[in-house]
């Protein structure tokens, strides 16, 4: 009988909580999606927890629904970490090769990566989640991708250290504790989304993934297969809704429906005399509003978001210089006219990015707003709890603990024993 593994990805966003249950069957190449759920998220603001009880209720609903839909429980659970507290810092670690003959072993690479993490100069209120190898240098030889088996004396490792605030991790820990979920790993939202959407060819040529969420927009840039830049902006699709509510003097709920049903980021494609009858959305409303005016409101905010994205591209010298262009994902990418606006502002080829094809009930997750949740189950399949670097994201054996909130830790041995139930650490 084929061996099966069940993976659950939980994407806790500012406006929605999404849960995807996927199953891996030995001998089958693709994961089978068994359940996918999206429920309103309460108690979050700009990706940060402001009411743990409210968020835990939303998470419990999503997970319970996903389990009922799939009829299975998860072996491995991955949870995304979002918010503007996410940081990315390049760091260098240097060690001496341990073997007398100078041959680099796996243990030397692990020590080098541990040295990278130990050299990170961070405030006491920040926590490392991922150490992502960029390249190695062995004596005078630079830009080595894998130094194992080579000979030398001095091994240098250059890597990106990615993490978030300890308060953020504790907030997510309280949420999951209330729901009774103990995650196997955490992954920051931009990296999980990139795993689901981007191909290796795009990463090699140079690409920017722009994930437009509810209250934040993340930018993840790759070139020559490596991470180049990662940042999170404190603005997203919910700000468009707020602008419409203020501009039309209507409730947030009505503004959201106006955006979804009539919205576009290109005012020039809308007739100036075209009207929106608000009574069709809410019977208590009696007025009609200009659809052209709504489009102007949307354009202004989306233009602001994309200009900020372009500034991030300029920071790392990639403005207008990525052959694979900008891939837009997240719920905000579905707003009509966003791709055309991105092409004009970013001066790059642009298109909407969808999660990679999976098996099972594919139609449930074949949408940009499920990118992060799908990325989590893909990372779970790759075994991100182990000490091996997976999908370009470093999850070190010692560093794996750092992806677990304080409420789960008692001793290094205990947490490693617990993690072995899900993923091998040796």
Report on this model:
With 426 residues, the protein is α/β, with parallel strands linked by helices. Among the domains are: 4-84 and 166-193 and 356-384 and 402-420, Nucleotidyltransferase, domain 5, CATH 3.30.420.40; 87-164, Dna Ligase, domain 1, CATH 3.30.1490. The protein has helices at 52-70, 106-119, 166-179, 189-197, 200-205, 237-248, 252-262, 291-315, 338-346, 371-382, 412-420; strands at residues 4-12, 16-25, 32-40, 44-45, 48-49, 76-81, 87-96, 126-138, 141-144, 154-165, 185-188, 207-212, 217-223, 226-233, 275-277, 288-290, 326-329, 350-352, 359-360. A 6-stranded mixed beta sheet has the order 11-6-1-2-3-19, with helices on both faces. Strands 14-13-12-17-18 form a 5-stranded mixed beta sheet, with helices on both faces. Strands 7-10-8-9 form a 4-stranded antiparallel beta sheet. Helix 1 crosses helix 3 (166-179), helix 6 crosses helix 7 (252-262) and helix 6 runs antiparallel to helix 8. It is globular, with a radius of gyration of 22 Å. 50% of the residues are buried. Residues 385-392 and 394-426 have low confidence and may be disordered.
